[in-house]
Design a protein that fits this description.
9 helices, four-stranded antiparallel β-sheet, Alpha-Beta Plaits, alpha+beta, 247 residues, globular, Arc Repressor Mutant, subunit A
Length: 247
């Protein structure tokens, strides 16, 4: 199992826990807000908003919460979020890429830098990790009774998917960034709502660590993910099955 597909499994488990704490909904609402503010409040005419709404529905966000977020984002008193990203290294040479949505970049860079420093890492310059991560579209779909796995895989490959992996009752579809829209369109045609669909940064080199060192690096990753300004955290840890149980 590849490192990024294992991390998709961990993200699903973590997503369920985050939802209970309300953190996942907060991040989803921020994405809906910036998508609606930049491209308008009609999901049919705004691909980014359509994706944000689909992700929110896939994570069981109530319809009224979604509609309220869109309405607020397109109003005159909408909060102004800015997209920013940070790159650096955790201990033991693990690359970490952090994507944020924030209304205060000074606060965000300060808190992100503090997390790296506290947990033995170093914040680097933007562009320093370009050679480590490839931009890919990743769709996570629950394998329900109405989905024929073989037929679905063929449909996805025809639409431009590079890989379809089945594990733990989920199908993970990976595609080139340029084919993201085509995969989303095909899923719409099939009437399938992905639990999660996003552009991810997939590592092309991986770092393997023992359990103790792995735990130290995960403390940094978890600290970043718990930051309300942080939307996504990507890394190049190669996680073993045993370490999955430690997360």
């Amino acid at each position: 199992m590849s490192g990024h597909s294992k991390w998709s499994t961990i993200k699903r488990k973590k997503g369920a826990a985050d939802a209970k704490r309300g953190k996942l909904f907060t991040k989803l609402i921020k994405e809906i807000s910036i998508a609606a503010r930049e491209g308008g409040g009609d999901p049919l005419a705004n691909p980014r908003l359509r994706l944000a709404v689909a992700n929110a529905k896939g994570n069981n966000m109530p319809k009224e919460n979604i509609e309220r977020a869109i309405k607020k984002a397109t109003g005159s008193d909408a909060e102004q979020y800015h997209e920013t990203s940070y790159e650096g290294y955790a201990s033991h040479g693990v690359a970490v890429f952090v994507e944020c949505l924030t209304d205060n970049t000074n606060r965000t860079v300060s808190s992100v830098r503090a997390a790296f420093t506290k947990h033995g890492g170093n914040l680097g310059t933007n562009g320093s990790l370009e050679f480590i991560f490839d931009r890919k579209g990743v769709f996570s779909i629950e394998l329900g009774e109405g989905i024929d796995e073989e037929e679905f895989t063929l449909e996805m490959i025809d639409a431009g998917a590079e890989d379809v992996v089945s594990e733990e009752g989920y199908l993970t579809v990976t595609c080139d960034m340029a084919d993201f829209g085509a995969i989303q369109k095909k899923l719409d045609e099939l009437g399938i709502i992905a639990e999660n669909a996003e552009l991810q940064r997939i590592p092309n080199t991986l770092v393997t660590l023992g359990n103790d060192d792995f735990g130290k690096v995960m403390k940094l990753i978890e600290a970043l993910e718990d930051n309300d300004d942080v939307q996504k955290v990507f890394h190049n840890l190669d996680i073993t099955e045993e370490q999955m149980e430690l997360v």
